[in-house]
Write a structure and sequence with these properties.
Largest sheet: none
Structural class: mainly alpha
Helix content: over 70%
Strand content: under 5%
Number of strands: 0
Shape: elongated
Order of helices and strands: HHHHH
Distance between the termini: 31 Å
Number of helices: 5
Length: 118
């Protein structure tokens, strides 16, 4: 079933994102001498409000966590639209290449006004 395949990819992407956050946190711990929980909360994916609530109720450096979360938000805000345009253009090109000869012929007829649409 297609849903099973999609779920697997979503699960893999989720675990990869959490693992990537853990690697970034490890790098912060080693290079900036911060405690591991502060580093992980600063790099963890998710909403800033959720991270702020967890950080406020934990013994972490709250300003550091919020600064990293704000930086992450701004990077996603700036990089998201160009990345989405890039992926959309790649998908459009891939779909154009996958048309069968019969589909291409039908699309030409529609474009030339020779075919009637229901």
């Amino acid at each position: 079933m297609n849903l099973d395949r999609s779920f697997r990819w979503v699960a893999v992407a989720t675990f990869a994102l959490v693992a990537f956050s853990a690697v970034l946190a490890f790098i912060l711990v080693k290079t900036m001498n911060v405690d591991p929980l502060t580093a992980y909360l600063g790099t963890s994916p998710g909403g800033m409000d959720s991270v702020a609530i967890i950080a406020a109720s934990s013994p972490v450096d709250l300003p550091f966590v919020m600064a990293l979360q704000t930086m992450r938000f701004l990077i996603v805000l700036m990089a998201g639209p160009p990345l989405a345009r890039f992926v959309a253009s790649r998908l459009r090109r891939a779909r154009k290449r996958r048309l069968s000869p019969g589909e291409k012929k039908a699309m030409r007829k529609v474009a030339d006004g020779e075919a009637e649409l229901d």
